[in-house]
Amino acid sequence: MEIISESQHQKSRAADVSWIFEHQQASRNRQQAQATQLRSQAALGKPSWFSELHRLKHLEQDFAFLPVGWHGGKGPMFYGKDHPTTPEDWTTEALTIDQLLSWNRTPYRGIGARTGLHTGPLMAFDFDGESSVDFACEIGLAPWAFDTWHVHRDNDPWRLKVLCRPTLDQLSQLPLGSDGSIEFQGSTLTKPKDSNKKGEALEVFFFGGRQVVLLGQHPDGGNYHWPPGLGPEQLAPPPQAWLDYAVHIAKEVHAPKRSGSRPSSSQKNGTRRLSNCPICGRHAGKGGSSLWCDETTKGLIFCMEGNTFSAEQAHGRLTSNQIVQTARGPYKFLYSKGDAFVFAPQAAGAK
Ligand SMILES: [Zn+2]
To answer: Which helix (H) or strand (E) holds 34?
Structure first.
C-alpha cells in the first residue's frame, strides 16, 4: 500500500476536519427541518426515514435487504414460522422494498443489507472512531475522496460506512481462503481497548454472515443517513487503494494463525508504541519489524501476535494470570483479545 507523505497527510486532515464539520452542520440543519415532518409522520406510525426507502428500489434484485432492530440492538429481525422465538436464517432472507414498507410483524428500527459476494456484491468499509479515519488517511483511503454510497451517523462524525460494489475484475483480485471462498471480514485495530473505552478499528466486511445497517435509528440514539450526493444512487466500485487495502486484509485473515491486521503507527491518546516490547522483544531497525505493541498510560501492555515476534514465542503457551519475567520486571498475563495479548505490570515477588 502506498503511504502518503506527512505534509499530504496534514493537508488531508485539515480537509477531513472541515468536511466532517460541514456534514455535522448539514445534519443539524436537516434535523431541524425534519422535526415538523417527524411529528406529523409519527402520528401516522411511520418513521421519517421510510420516505427514503424508495431510493433502494433499483438495488432490491441484487441486494438482501433486511429489517433490523432485534431486541433493541442492530440484528436482523426474523422469527421462525414454527418456532416463534427462533430467528429464521437471516443469511438467506431478503425483502423487497414493498415488503419492507408493508412489514407488519415486529416494528423495526432500520434497514440492513448482507455484505459479500452473493448479494450486491457489497463491500463495506466501516470506520469506527477518529483514529480509524486518521489511519485511513495515512494509507490513502480518505472517505471524503471516494464518491460512493456513504452511511453516516448524525450524532457521531467519526463513525461511518463507505459502501462499494467491486467489479468482476476486482473480485478476481481477492485471494481465495482455505474454504475456497473469496469472502472475508477483517479489521485494523487503530486504537486498542482500554479499561474505560472500547477500541477503535477500520473494518472491511465482504461476507454473507455479516450485514451492515443502511438506514434508520441507531440503538444508542442518532440516525443513519446518506449525505447529499452520497446516496445509494452513487454506489461505485472501490478505487485501487481501497481494493488494495481489502486484498491486504483478506490475505491477513486467510493466513493461518493471524487475524485482522496491525494497528497503525499513528496511535496516540494514552498509549505509546513500544520498541523494544518487553514481552515479545519486537523492535524497529535491523532484524526488527513494524512496531505494533503498545503500552497504556496505566502501564498495561498490548503485545501483538506476529509471525516473527509474539508473546507465546517468547514465553511459551500462556494461561491467564501467569507471571512472565521480563527485562522490566515481572508482568502478569491477563487475557488475549484478537491479536493482542494483554499484560499488567506485577510488583516483584507478587504472585
Ligand atoms: Zn510485544
So the answer is: helix 6-44
CA distances from residue 131 to 6, 38, 58, 174, 180 in whole angstroms, order as listed:
16, 34, 35, 26, 33
**Contact 223/216 with Cβ under 8 angstroms?**
yes
Contact 311, 322 (CB under 8 A): no
CA of 291 to the centre of ligand 1 (A): 9
- 43 class by beta-carbon count within 10 Å (0-12 exposed, 13-18 middle, 19+ buried): exposed
Cβ 91 vs Cβ 118: under 8 Å: no
Cα 261 to its chain centre, rounded Å, is 12
Residue 102 CA to ligand 1 centre (angstroms): 54
Question: Along the 351 residues of the chain, how does pLDDT read in single tens digits?
Answer: 444 455 554 545 555 656 666 666 666 565 555 554 444 444 445 677 888 999 999 998 889 898 887 666 777 766 544 334 444 556 667 888 998 888 776 677 889 998 988 888 999 999 999 999 999 999 999 999 999 999 999 888 899 999 999 998 898 899 887 767 788 999 999 998 887 778 899 999 998 878 899 999 888 788 999 999 999 999 999 999 999 999 999 988 887 543 344 433 333 334 577 878 999 998 877 776 666 777 876 788 888 887 788 899 999 999 989 999 998 899 999 887 667 788 999 875 555
Cell numbers at 21, concatenated: 464539520
State in Å: Cα 130 to ligand 1 middle: 25
